[in-house]
Amino acid sequence: MPDSANRPVTTDGSTVDVLVRLLDDGIPAPSYAHPGDAGADLVTTVDVELAPRQRAVVPTGVAIALPDGYAAFVHPRSGLAARHGLTVVNAPGTVDAGYRGEIKVVLLNTDPEETVHLSRGDRIAQLVVQRVEKARFVRAETLPGSHRGEGGFGSSGGWTAAR
Ligand SMILES: O=c1ccn([C@H]2C[C@H](O)[C@@H](COP(=O)(O)OP(=O)(O)OP(=O)(O)O)O2)c(=O)[nH]1
Ligand SMILES: [Mg+2]
């Protein structure tokens, strides 16, 4: 199957080739920590200090070309979230198939007291590559009925709005 720039892309059903440009010597390509992992770790190219509740757009030193029909999603890492309250503001960040710029991570220190210190090369987020459908939005005056109907935002119970 060719990609959007007509380069060959191979997929064996469980892997897909994603072209990657390394923009910074010494910074590795995204990599999976264990076989079977869904997320490939991204690292920071710079030292970062995040004061309590501060956010920063952090470079990762990689640019990719996903095949058409794929997207990549920038997710937080659970260890950093649990230990330091570090998250990704726009989680999951969406990397479009046509994006050729450097992947960046919008990190947020949610901890109210502790500063987070990150060093160049630290793994800060993980990239999940997925197939995505392209929708055709077909206008309709009425929508087919469903069990849920228009209920949402806690309609199934177990949640009380704060006053
Ligand atoms: O966490 C992220 C999210 C996005 N991007 C890059 C890739 C993506 O293809 C592009 C645009 O992202 P998005 O569509 O979420 O942002 P936008 O605010 O809608 O910008 P645009 O108008 O460029 O679409 O920014 C990242 O590097 N990291
Ligand atoms: Mg957009």
TrEMBL record:
<dbReference type="InterPro" id="IPR033704">
    <property type="entry name" value="dUTPase_trimeric"/>
</dbReference>
<dbReference type="GO" id="GO:0000287">
    <property type="term" value="F:magnesium ion binding"/>
</dbReference>
<dbReference type="InterPro" id="IPR008181">
    <property type="entry name" value="dUTPase"/>
</dbReference>
<feature type="binding site">
    <location>
        <begin position="94"/>
        <end position="96"/>
    </location>
    <ligand>
        <name>substrate</name>
    </ligand>
</feature>
<keyword id="KW-0460">Magnesium</keyword>
<dbReference type="GO" id="GO:0006226">
    <property type="term" value="P:dUMP biosynthetic process"/>
</dbReference>
<feature type="domain" description="dUTPase-like">
    <location>
        <begin position="27"/>
        <end position="157"/>
    </location>
</feature>
<keyword id="KW-0546">Nucleotide metabolism</keyword>
<feature type="binding site">
    <location>
        <position position="90"/>
    </location>
    <ligand>
        <name>substrate</name>
    </ligand>
</feature>
<keyword id="KW-0378">Hydrolase</keyword>
<feature type="binding site">
    <location>
        <begin position="77"/>
        <end position="79"/>
    </location>
    <ligand>
        <name>substrate</name>
    </ligand>
</feature>
<dbReference type="Pfam" id="PF00692">
    <property type="entry name" value="dUTPase"/>
</dbReference>
<comment type="pathway">
    <text>Pyrimidine metabolism; dUMP biosynthesis; dUMP from dCTP (dUTP route): step 2/2.</text>
</comment>
<comment type="function">
    <text>This enzyme is involved in nucleotide metabolism: it produces dUMP, the immediate precursor of thymidine nucleotides and it decreases the intracellular concentration of dUTP so that uracil cannot be incorporated into DNA.</text>
</comment>
<dbReference type="GO" id="GO:0004170">
    <property type="term" value="F:dUTP diphosphatase activity"/>
</dbReference>
<keyword id="KW-0479">Metal-binding</keyword>
<protein>
    <recommendedName>
        <fullName>Deoxyuridine 5'-triphosphate nucleotidohydrolase</fullName>
        <ecNumber>3.6.1.23</ecNumber>
    </recommendedName>
</protein>
<dbReference type="InterPro" id="IPR036157">
    <property type="entry name" value="dUTPase-like_sf"/>
</dbReference>
<dbReference type="InterPro" id="IPR029054">
    <property type="entry name" value="dUTPase-like"/>
</dbReference>
<comment type="similarity">
    <text>Belongs to the dUTPase family.</text>
</comment>
<dbReference type="GO" id="GO:0046081">
    <property type="term" value="P:dUTP catabolic process"/>
</dbReference>
